[in-house]
């Protein structure tokens, strides 16, 4: 199987958080129950992640009050919610603005810098 080209839908998180005792059991019913419990756990993690992103989006949208209609902040909010990390170059390319302007609106929005670097920085929502 090609590594990195497939999406596991949160199954790796399930594997990290749940014990592997029943996944190799001889009884088919026990294995099936372990698989179903894993799917349920992955779905619960997905719902928690969705709620977290929805709350973050709502909080970022509060910063739009009083802005001009031509502001680039709504586009940045959509980009940040749709991606886990964004860079200044990615924001500049998507919103068709200068990289320095991208850094400025990222700082206005109050995104968290994830890399801890001075150059080639990336921001995200926690």
Automatic annotation (TrEMBL):
Pfam families per record: DUF1612 (PF07756), HTH_13 (PF11972)
Region entry Disordered, spans: 1-21
Compositional bias of kind Basic and acidic residues: 1-11
Extent of Basic residues compositional bias: 12-21
HTH DNA binding domain: residues covered: 73-126
Sequence ranges assigned to domain DUF1612 in this UniProt record: 19-64
Protein's name in the database: HTH DNA binding domain-containing protein
Species this chain originates from: Rhizobium mongolense
Taxonomic placement: Bacteria, Pseudomonadati, Pseudomonadota, Alphaproteobacteria, Hyphomicrobiales
